[in-house]
Amino acid sequence: LHDSPFSDFLGFELLLEEQDRELLSRVRAFMTREVEPVINEHWTRGEFPHQLVPAIAELGIAGLAYDGPGCPARGALVDGMVAMELSRIDPSIGTFMGVHGGLAMGSIQLCGSEEQRERWLPAMARMELIGAFGLTEPDVGSAISMGLATTARRDGDGWVLNGEKKWIGNASFADLVIIWARDEDDGEVKGFVVEKGTEGMTFEVQQDKIALRVVQNSEIHLRDVHVPETHRLQGATSFASTSEVLRVTRMGVAWQAVGCARGAYEHAVRYTKAREQFGRPIASFQLVQDLLVKMLSNVTAGTAMNVRASQLQDAGLLRDEHASLCKVHSTVRMRETVGWAREVLGGNGILLEHHVGRFVADAEAIYSYEGTREINTLIVGRAITGESAFV
Ligand code: FAD
């Protein structure tokens, strides 16, 4: 079993090929050596560690699951485990990669033409171009399929976009922002690749977040933004196309949630072995062991569920309700697990220097983005009953 057998308890990583296990070890070493020592400072200041991007690019993990031009094409299982590995040390870095390598690259891979894939994906895989994904709006999140209000108007050879977006990760520094807008003519949602510096697109970075403070989320204002037809994702003809992207990236979020829980659990195990009370390590107390074992159960069950769903994804059999079930389960159990980890650290659990407090805070954002617990529950509910309970 692995160098960290106490958290990959059932040895899921042994399901990977040797080459992918090595990749996972490299990611783990990088995150432990380069990210963990500096991340709390960035979290406090709410700053993204741009200086780490070249080294992340070197890992070759952007768009790992996709088989488009220049993409690593290693499949969904290792992609998921890498997402877990990133978030195990820092959920903000996990989210940054989820947005760039999952949502933005996924939009081009799944909804772009062959020419568009050739044009953008190789540079995105090398992380020379960074992507963002603009779907959510200030007035509509969960009901975006119905309420999306950003408009796209045909104008000669191109399009004119108008509207507002909110919560868009990476947008303020991204080279390409995927903007989802409703065609004024046919009422369908379409995707557009808007390049950095395009006139009329401005950003306001959202301040004072209490979670994922390292991730830069922005409001985007779009005022008569001209986009050529070559930048309209040719395969995105309705909201169903957006949902195809979200189906696979939601699995990524389920893996991030297990990573967040796993990171907090590992800090908790180490702490309880080092901390002494009543003359003994607190790890020796039955009530403390009870919490550690419950945390490990959550992490292990979440991993098992996600492994199977990722295998379905690799086999082309993943359905919306599979990804939603994994997202609901992993995020609910994550929230429970990080809470228990904080509990066994006592007062130190709320000090940033012990890391667990950051996991507790960051879990709140992972819990809500890419479909809240309620929305993902309703997707599964609809699948098992045949009844839609959304409205
Ligand atoms: P609302 O939709 O207003 O929901 C509020 C509450 O009402 C929730 O509890 C919800 O479950 C509940 N609710 C709503 N409808 C129903 C219903 N029918 N039945 C029962 N309950 C219901 N978006 C992007 O496009 N790109 C990004 O990069 C991005 N990054 C994000 C990063 C962070 C840190 C966060 C917090 C969000 C991000 N988002 C992004 C947006 C995210 O996907 C939305 O926040 C999420 O979909 C929920 O939408 P909302 O916040 O508007 O909540």
TrEMBL record:
Cofactor(s) listed in the protein's UniProt record: FAD
Domain Acyl-CoA dehydrogenase/oxidase N-terminal, residue spans: 18-128
PANTHER family per the UniProt record, alphabetical: ACYL-COA DEHYDROGENASE, ACYL-COENZYME A OXIDASE
Presence of keyword NAD: no
Any GO MF annotation of the entry: flavin adenine dinucleotide binding
Family of the protein in this entry: Belongs to the acyl-CoA dehydrogenase family.
Pfam family, one: Acyl-CoA_dh_M
Organism annotation: Nocardioides marinisabuli
Domain of life, source organism: Bacteria
Domain called Acyl-CoA dehydrogenase/oxidase C-terminal: residue spans: 241-384
InterPro entries assigned: ACX4-like (IPR045008), Acyl-CoA_DH_CS (IPR006089), Acyl-CoA_Oxase/DH_mid-dom (IPR006091), Acyl-CoA_Oxase/DH_mid-dom_sf (IPR046373), AcylCo_DH-like_C (IPR036250), AcylCo_DH/oxidase_C (IPR009075), AcylCoA_DH/ox_N (IPR013786), AcylCoA_DH/ox_N_sf (IPR037069)
Protein's name in the database: Glutaryl-CoA dehydrogenase
Keyword Oxidoreductase: yes
Keywords in alphabetical order: FAD, Flavoprotein, Oxidoreductase
Enzyme Commission code(s) on record: 1.3.8.6
GO BP annotations listed: fatty acid beta-oxidation
